[in-house]
Amino acid sequence: MPVFPDLAQRTLSEGSAPLTPDFRPGYHIAPPTGWMNDPNGVVYFRGEYHVFYQHHPFDTSWGPMYWGHAKSRDLVHWQHLPIALQPGDEFDRHGCFSGSAVVCGDSLALLYTGHTWLGEVGDERSIRQVQCLASSDDGVHFVKHGAVIETAPDAAIMHFRDPKVWRDGEHWYLIAGARLGDVPLLPLYRSSDLRTWEFLAYASRGGEGDGYMWECPDLFRLDGQDVLLYSPQGMQPDGFERLNRFHTGYRVGRLDSDWRFTGGPFIELDNGHDFYAAQTLLAADGRRLLWAWLDMWESPMPSKAQHWCGMLGLPRELQLHEGRLHSYPARELTALRRAPLLVDDALCWDGSGSQPLAGLSGDRLEIELQLDVAGCRDGRLGIALRCSADGQEQTLLYYDAHLQRLVLDRSRSGAGVSGQRSVALAPVREPLLLRVFLDRSSIEVFAADGSFSLSSRIYPQPDSLGLALFGSSGGRVAVHQAWQLSSGWV
Ligand code: FRU
């Protein structure tokens, strides 16, 4: 039998993709294969949470959009379901773009944007976007009903997408993102049957400095106020603010009887590198839950070498305190905890230099951390995570005494990524309590009081698992407790 060792060897060394570490999350929602972006349609149906998402199953690049689908009984353990929507009909020829899901009587209804390229594929100057309806009796198989809003309120609007639907009293309401020239608009509609929609008003429109398009709007009542959540494109960075390509944030105010929203300034909801297109759900127990895409447009995605990319952030609970949204990891997530790795105040560091945490390592961890920054007069005080044995790779989370900010630094966080994101802490007298969630290619940091969060992707080597506390002058850092987290997939 002929053998071709040269050919075989050449194929291995030249032809195959280099082996890369596995970045797949253990307890976050990610696609089985291919590309993922926005969460769309987060809904509680017949005792289960359903999360749909923008998906391109055939490729790790964005393309004709499908709706991927996963469900969970407890917000912790997820199961993939068959693809819910695929493009190709006359009204969604080139994509089933973002939208939302609602329970209507006995069925589950999806409102989404049918997207068509009118010119070249990818030419955003010539597109048609219409709002479409699909429904399902079993929560798994969906029947399309075509376009239910075929034209935007102004014929000159071409970008018109991401319908978010909710019920209030006798009516359904729908808010969408739109763009007239470079002016962002949020048209608001009303319906009694999800099929016939009456345009009410533009709930909001952008002004100077507000960007050119607002994607994925959501409008909900929380603790007696109205919250307008959206993802603007085209806002400029300002100091430490708005450093990402695009942003997700909110305004707190009031939707008046003319259907116009007035309120406070736009506030970014998360201060990390990767947080976009968030959407909320009103849970059966009254909690307002939120999911976001834990990535950013045009960011490095090294997991593409493993034939998948994109993941969603942890589900969060929202509360409103003094005009600002506070976010907390959904309380159900404590079910992921295995036996605690540390007992109270097991690890404290108030020296200078670095202290490796010998008994603590891992790539799927929850860590409760306390930073006593009041005494930190100079330099930095914090924790290094996902450290390699030689110290070359590490993700840093620290208080910077000079800036008086909490910094997430991924300059040495592995493949592709870089840069710092931070939040202002001044003036800080109380100890700062943090909850940190590590998954294989992500870090999410929550202030224990909910007042800020930082969410970023990181791509360390699989064996970069170490942790260390570090400081330079004064202050104290303590790990109160830590847990290995179990798998979130059934
Ligand atoms: C937001 C977004 C939406 C659009 C979808 C397309 O990330 O651009 O506006 O519907 O992604 O995948």
Automatic annotation (TrEMBL):
Role played: Enables the bacterium to metabolize sucrose as a sole carbon source.
Compartments, record wording: Cytoplasm
Family that this chain belongs to: Belongs to the glycosyl hydrolase 32 family.
Recorded catalytic activity of this chain's protein: Hydrolysis of terminal non-reducing beta-D-fructofuranoside residues in beta-D-fructofuranosides
Name this polypeptide is given: Sucrose-6-phosphate hydrolase
Keywords: Carbohydrate metabolism, Cytoplasm, Glycosidase, Hydrolase
GO terms of molecular function: beta-fructofuranosidase activity
Enzyme kind, highest EC tier: hydrolase
GO biological process terms held by the UniProt record: sucrose metabolic process
InterPro entries in alphabetical order: ConA-like_dom_sf, GH32_Enzymes, Glyco_hydro_32, Glyco_hydro_32_AS, Glyco_hydro_32_C, Glyco_hydro_32_N, Glyco_hydro_beta-prop_sf, Suc6P_hydrolase
Organism (species): Pseudomonas borbori
SUPFAM superfamilies: Arabinanase/levansucrase/invertase, Concanavalin A-like lectins/glucanases
Pathway note: Glycan biosynthesis; sucrose metabolism
Superkingdom, taxonomy of origin: Bacteria
Gene3D superfamilies: Exo-inulinase, domain 1, Glycosyl hydrolase domain, family 43
Domain named Glycosyl hydrolase family 32 C-terminal: residues: 353-480
